[in-house]
């Protein structure tokens, strides 16, 4: 374990941030690296619990006490091996995961939990810096060919695992470059894109082929993949955006968050031909939706020079502490304040947008809201009710709709005859990721709906095991809970 008395002696410490006025001048990551000694001290806080609840909190089943101990002892290469045995891309989760493991950490019952996510990032960065992350192509090829459709974290994890098993993997991606939401959703200030590129180089060197700019179902028929490949893994994400069908929703200036974020990430990448520019510069911006996407819109708006940014959330304001009805080790629904929120956005809760107002040229100039409350009637789902006399008009030239996603696009499913579930995701069991059509598997947001990077990587890994088993009759690819033990 870490230091036996570490948790008694050492306080939790995480990376600090560059000051707001500095960081909003550019799109660079703004966390300030910690001294190696401080990271090792944080590893020393781990109690090596008899039942490490952090394991079950982590969708990947990361071997957390083991890598905490290795870090405490300065055995960074060992820590990297342990971490990579369950997580293909700890440099993504170490930056971006909301860390359900930390909510489940036993130390969190009456102390601040171990800084698991930050330790993970430091392990991954040390491993890259020291040159320990190198291509490990399979020793033998099986002669089987697998198509992966979609190159987000689920697709990349599935591809790497299947390639390790010796299959020839081709990843199809309709965007210009691989990465999914990591590249064209999440802003650079949360993760700079060279972090994806350096990992892609390893994947390519291992023998994975990437075909970008290919929209499966449009540029090539999904059915043709069935002829050319022995198995298909669908990892296309949950890309259907939720709309706000109210008066004025067609005005110029009412924009889907993903159009705004995707365009900005391409701009930061140096792409010139962006179509009609969507910019928050000198505007009063309202971001509708209080989740991750909304938060990313806030940070991006400030970096573009917005005059003001207001953030609306239809749900009531949570408490910063864990609510009593959501005890440890469960993931609590509480008020979360991101670094972007702290850059100057004003947040409003229990608020609903009723109407957008335009000028004579069809440009957005304001919007109308009212306060709402959730009314509970026994035996029924909670109902949203407007609070009378709370109508308010806001000045606003850019409204960003960050309302989440309703499910997966259905073109591929139609072309391949796949069943959808009642949440419009492609239907497949969480046990073996098989769809109703033999040889076709689905993983990540396209199967589970809008979720998290850590879940996407987990599903990609799990699905790869079952694809391998389908192709070969057995699989040595690890499943969650196996750690680095080979499995047959
Ligand atoms: C703005 C935003 C911020 C987020 N921030 C966080 C965060 O901080 N932390 C976190 O854990 N999660 C975050 N998430 C959620 C996380 O990004 C997703 O859960 C995760 O990326 C899902 O991975 P995936 O591989 O299933 O799908 P995606 O990442 O959505 O990738 C799917 C890929 O498939 C491609 N594709 C789809 N259909 C086709 C087709 N027919 N042919 C070819 N290619 C196709 C798409 O172009 C895309 O590249 C965020 C989401 C958004 C929208
Ligand atoms: S629950 Fe927390 S203290 Fe216990 S082993 Fe996991 S990280 Fe360490």
UniProtKB/TrEMBL annotation:
Name of the protein described by the UniProt record: Glutamate synthase subunit beta
Pathway: Amino-acid biosynthesis
Domain FAD/NAD(P)-binding residue range list: 144-460
Keywords, in A-Z order: Amino-acid biosynthesis, Glutamate biosynthesis, Oxidoreductase
Domain Dihydroprymidine dehydrogenase: start-end pairs: 23-131
Keyword DNA-binding carried by entry: no
The keyword Amino-acid biosynthesis is annotated on this UniProt entry: yes
Molecular-function annotations in GO: iron-sulfur cluster binding; oxidoreductase activity, acting on the CH-NH2 group of donors, NAD or NADP as acceptor
Entry's Gene Ontology BP terms: glutamate biosynthetic process
Alphabetical list of NCBIfam families matching this protein: GOGAT_sm_gam
Species this protein is from: Maribacter aurantiacus
Pfam family, one: Fer4_20
Gene3D superfamilies listed in its UniProt record: Alpha-helical ferredoxin, FAD/NAD(P)-binding domain
């Amino acid at each position: 374990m870490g230091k036996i008395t570490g948790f008694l002696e050492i306080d939790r410490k995480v990376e600090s941030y560059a000051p707001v006025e500095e960081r909003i001048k550019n799109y660079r990551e703004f966390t300030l690296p910690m001294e190696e000694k401080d990271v090792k001290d944080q590893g020393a806080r781990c109690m090596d619990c008899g039942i490490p609840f952090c394991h079950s909190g982590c969708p990947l089943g990361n071997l957390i006490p083991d890598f905490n101990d290795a870090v405490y002892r300065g055995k960074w290469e060992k820590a990297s091996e342990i971490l990579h045995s369950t997580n293909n891309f700890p440099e993504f989760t170490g930056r971006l995961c909301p860390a359900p493991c930390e909510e489940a950490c036993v130390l969190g019952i009456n102390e601040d939990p171990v800084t698991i996510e930050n330790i993970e990032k430091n392990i991954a960065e040390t491993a890259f810096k020291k040159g320990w992350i190198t291509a490990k192509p399979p020793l033998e090829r099986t002669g089987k060919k697998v198509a992966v459709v979609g190159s987000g974290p689920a697709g990349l994890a599935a591809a790497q695992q299947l390639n390790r098993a010796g299959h020839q993997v081709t990843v199809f991606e309709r965007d210009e470059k691989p990465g999914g939401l990591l590249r064209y959703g999440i802003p650079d200030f949360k993760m700079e894109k060279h972090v994806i590129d350096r990992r892609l180089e390893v994947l390519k060197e291992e023998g994975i082929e990437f075909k970008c700019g290919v929209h499966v179902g449009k540029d090539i028929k999904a059915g043709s993949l069935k002829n050319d490949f022995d198995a298909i893994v669908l990892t296309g994400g949950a890309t259907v955006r939720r709309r706000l069908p109210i008066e004025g929703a067609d005005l110029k200036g009412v924009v889907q968050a993903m159009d705004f974020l995707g365009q900005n990430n391409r701009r930061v990448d140096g792409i010139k031909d962006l179509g009609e520019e969507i910019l928050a510069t000198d505007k009063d911006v309202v971001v509708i939706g209080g989740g991750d996407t909304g938060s990313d819109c806030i940070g991006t708006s400030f970096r573009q020079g917005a005059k003001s940014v207001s953030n609306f959330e239809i749900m009531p304001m949570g408490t910063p502490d864990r609510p009593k009805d959501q005890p440890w080790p469960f993931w609590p629904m509480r008020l979360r304040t991101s670094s972007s929120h702290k850059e100057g956005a004003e947040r409003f809760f229990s608020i609903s947008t009723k109407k957008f107002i335009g000028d004579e040229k069809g440009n957005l100039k304001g919007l109308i809201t009212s306060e709402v409350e959730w009314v509970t009637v026994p035996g029924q789902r909670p109902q949203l009710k407007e609070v009378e006399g709370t109508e308010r008009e806001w000045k606003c030239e850019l409204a960003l709709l960050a309302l989440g996603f309703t499910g997966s696009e259905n073109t591929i499913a139609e072309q391949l005859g796949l069943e959808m579930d009642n949440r419009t995701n492609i239907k497949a069991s969480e046990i073996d990721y098989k769809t109703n059509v033999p040889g076709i598997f689905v993983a990540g947001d396209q199967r589970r709906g809008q979720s998290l990077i850590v879940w996407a990587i987990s599903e990609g890994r799990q699905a790869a095991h079952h694809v391998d088993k389908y192709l070969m009759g057995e699989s040595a690819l690890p499943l969650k809970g196996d750690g680095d033990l080979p499995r047959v």
